[in-house]
Amino acid sequence: MGDVEGFLKYGRAELHGRPVEERLADYHEVYEPVDEQTVVQQGARCMDCGIPYCHVACPLGNYIPGFNDLVYEGDWENALTLLHRDNNFPEFTGHLCPALCEGACSLSLSFEPVTIKMIELQIIERGFADGRVRPQPPHTLTGKRVAIVGSGPAGLAAAQQLRRQGHEVEVFERADRIGGLLRYGIPEFKLEKKIIDRRLEQLVAEGIVFHTGVEVGKDVSADDLCRDFDAVLLAGGSRKPRDLVAEGRELSGIYFAMDFLTQQNQRCEGDVVPPDDAISAEGKRVIVIGGGDTGADCVGTSLRQGALQVTSFELLPQPPLKRAKDNPWPEWPRVFRTPSSHEEGGERIYSVQTKRLIGDERGRVVAIEAVKVNWQRDAQGRMRMEEVPDSNFTMPCDLVLLAMGFTGAERNGMIEQLGVDLTPGGTVATNTSKMTSRPGVFAAGDMSRGQSLIVWAIAEGREAAKRIGEYLAQA
Ligand SMILES: Cc1cc2nc3c(=O)[nH]c(=O)nc-3n(C[C@H](O)[C@H](O)[C@H](O)COP(=O)(O)OP(=O)(O)OC[C@H]3O[C@@H](n4cnc5c(N)ncnc54)[C@H](O)[C@@H]3O)c2cc1C
Ligand code: SF4
To answer: How far apart are CA 192 and CA 138, in angstroms?
Structure first.
């Protein structure tokens, strides 16, 4: 521990967003860069706890007090080595992780937690700037071949780990670009896509082969893949969107969030979306149904497109400002947060349920009828919802975006052809070795875990790579 009084000397420093008017005029990174002295001081706040709960809470098991201290000492090179030991892509988590580690940081019991995520991002950004992120191709090759389906964070992490074990690795991606939800789900203003491209250069230089525009189960049969490779990893995500069951769902002007977000990401890449297919919030009153990450991304994107008004509907109640009694440290704090997109505008309405979608004579959505709900615990302690009498209201709208989550893996095509077992929740079932019911076929990331986080996708990809390595060693 570098500075035993660091946490008494320095307060927690937050990242500062660019002025809202400025950032709404573009799709660039929301946050301003941080100076080195601030990061060093933030590293000094770490108490190097005997039991570092931050490290325990991190799905990757990042050794956080270690790199905090190295940053305090100014040893950026070893901080990067330590960070990369457990995380292939700290730039993705450094930008996008909710930072489960910070929720568990002991300092938060009496002070504010260490800014672990900011420190992580500065270590990797410095690493790239100083040319320290270099390809690490394998020294010896095993002659074994692994196919990976899907190029999201799970597929990419597995690919890098497996390649470094010396296997031939080929990644099959149905989209025209690599990255999964990092590329086409998450908006440019949260993760500029040049950050993915920069990392891809390393993966290609290490010898990973990427095939884009290839859907396994359609362009290549899943059985051919199993025949041609020694092991197959399914990392296709959890892409079946949860739909709204309500009268008027068939009206025009109602879209899944992913369709809307994908198009904007395509435009940011310089692609032209055919006008007949284009979904735009410009000049529209937008209602986003679903108040999670995806919903917030729809808000920020709608505001940048020039929406007249943006309202988010969330079925659950507004979280408390501080931890509730049933949510003690070191659990993840379920408290009210304001993501950058909500800082930029729009209104959030909690405890609200959509009753029906109202259309005009041309079949276009013009309003939503909704009702307020109350949440109470029943005798078994389960949360139960009931409508608040006479609380119905109607809100005009021209565009409705459905951001209500995902219900598991897409089942047609690849999954159907492989015939692998699914869990009751609709994800691909795996055993403790990440293997599916079909020998030699593994699954990782949202496809096996269900809709989750980037940090979990990377952790699952790494675990699957380890298990595939063990399987290939016995084959
Ligand atoms: C809008 C949105 C915002 C999010 N924001 C955050 C955030 O801020 N922080 C965070 O931690 N998490 C966030 N998440 C969650 C996070 O993005 C996912 O948990 C993560 O990307 C899952 O990674 P994955 O590799 O398992 O799958 P994905 O990223 O979904 O990638 C799967 C890939 O597989 C491809 N594929 C599927 N089937 C086939 C096939 N048959 N053949 C070929 N290719 C196929 C798909 O095209 C896709 O590219 C967000 C999710 C969404 C939808
Ligand atoms: S819990 Fe917080 S203070 Fe303790 S080691 Fe981790 S980051 Fe440092």
So the answer is: 29
